[in-house]
Specification:
14 helices; Rossmann fold; alpha/beta; 326 residues; 8-stranded mixed sheet; single chain
Length: 326
């Protein structure tokens, strides 16, 4: 049986709104943390704002905190929902369920629990994988989808083993993260080296030390470290799912965002392999961490893309019971 939010303890510590470092001014006046148990998972979710629902799906190795710089402005037009994915932050860390079909179903169940039958989605990095699965597996639930900054397993052509050094430096963690145990053993106690390297080398504009430190602190627990690799360990299942998904092309509007110094137009090129209505955006001066390196540009892009959804009649956001997953 699902637990109501009132039955669950209030989220505490640095992973929650009340304990997260260096939040924008007045952030806690708008946003709160809570736990929601949907039966299969206890989610930690940050919510706030008013308007049609907008689901923000973070990437690896981050948490909801990745969106903090643009959440207050988005909350003026949208009901913002920023969860920690299965296995991350303060959300539950079960042993399995890290293929994107299950991760998408997690978030569909969360939105059901919050009363949101139809919603828009923005997903970054592995959040792009999950956003794509949400739109493909739960037709009619996602109104608009913005995605940023990652290859899409099973859709993007795989690079060669002996890739150019720049590409290898950007993508070698895919193979490392898929390992069964040795990655835990190598990274444990060296989280600042491994994850610090990921943040430093994928940024054109250095992320603040407090933010990098915050993300690393969430990964020093062995259970959290192990779970952080799980979405990569499930790639065989996700690739097989995506190969089936791309046979049913998406027709909803999609904004594909790349950083000038990272994947650029490759995000749109990837989504065009699986979707019909794809808009391309390359953010100047940005690398991988778009919402933190260039928050003003990211906010402007999302605001413009989501305007037709924001301005639609209220009834359009409540179209009736959700369609059954495919």
């Amino acid at each position: 049986m699902n637990s109501s939010p009132s039955d669950l303890p209030a989220p505490e510590g640095p992973g929650s709104v009340s304990g997260a470092p260096n939040l924008p001014d007045d952030f806690t006046d708008t946003f709160t943390s809570r736990y929601i148990d949907t039966g299969g998972l206890r989610h930690h979710v940050v919510t706030g704002g008013d308007g049609p629902p907008l689901l923000l799906v973070h990437g690896w190795p981050q948490t909801w905190y990745a969106w903090r710089l643009i959440m207050p402005a988005l909350a003026r037009d949208f009901t913002v929902v920023a969860p920690d994915q299965r296995g991350t932050g303060l959300s539950g860390k079960p042993a399995d369920g890290y293929d994107t079909g299950t991760l998408a179903s997690d978030l569909a169940a969360l939105m059901d629990a919050l009363g949101h039958r139809r919603f828009a989605v923005a997903g970054h990095d592995t959040g792009m994988w999950i956003g794509y699965a949400l739109a493909a597996d739960h037709p009619g639930r996602v109104d608009r989808l913005a995605v940023a900054e990652t290859p899409l397993p099973g859709v993007t052509p795989s690079p060669p083993l002996f890739a150019p050094a720049r590409l290898n430096n950007a993508l070698w963690h895919f193979a490392f993260n898929r390992l069964a145990e040795v990655n835990d053993q190598l990274a444990q106690g060296r989280e600042d080296i491994y994850f610090g390297w990921q943040f430093a080398t994928k940024a054109a504009k250095k992320l603040p030390d407090y933010a990098v430190g915050h993300y690393i602190d969430t990964l020093t627990d062995p259970e959290a470290l192990h779970a952080s690799f799980a979405i990569y360990r499930a790639l065989d299942a996700t690739i097989a799912q995506n190969q089936q998904r791309k046979e049913r092309r998406l027709t909803l509007p999609i904004l594909a965002i790349g950083g000038q110094y990272s994947l650029g137009e490759q995000i749109a090129d990837t989504m065009k392999l699986a979707a019909d209505d794809v808009q391309t955006l390359v953010i100047p001066g940005c690398a991988h961490w778009v919402a933190e390196e260039t928050p003003e540009e990211t906010l402007a892009a999302l605001t413009a893309f989501l305007a037709p959804y924001r301005d639609a009649p209220t009834a359009a956001h409540h179209p009736g019971p959700p369609a059954a997953p495919v």
